[in-house]
Amino acid sequence: MSSIPFPILFIMLVFFTMWLILRKFHRIEQQKRNLPERGAYLQAHAQSDARCIACGATELEDQGLTHGGDERRIVSCGKCRTLLYRFVRPAAE
Ligand SMILES: [Zn+2]
Prior knowledge:
binds zinc ion; 3 strands
């Protein structure tokens, strides 16, 4: 049926899967970088204290943009995981 030997087909499949994963990862990364700053977020949603825009939860989580200790923090909802805003944490001295 196919003239392509199986091992090559397998390698192509592995590469294709890796490409799909990278593309998804890159898209999430891009979404995080495009998030509004905390001030702009609060203003845009007329909030004095940050709340989730999707479910209203006040329980938020922050994580580093590129690694755990990154000063650029990405805040997401602790309940529904919606990405909300970003802020820069002052570096610890
Ligand atoms: Zn939420």
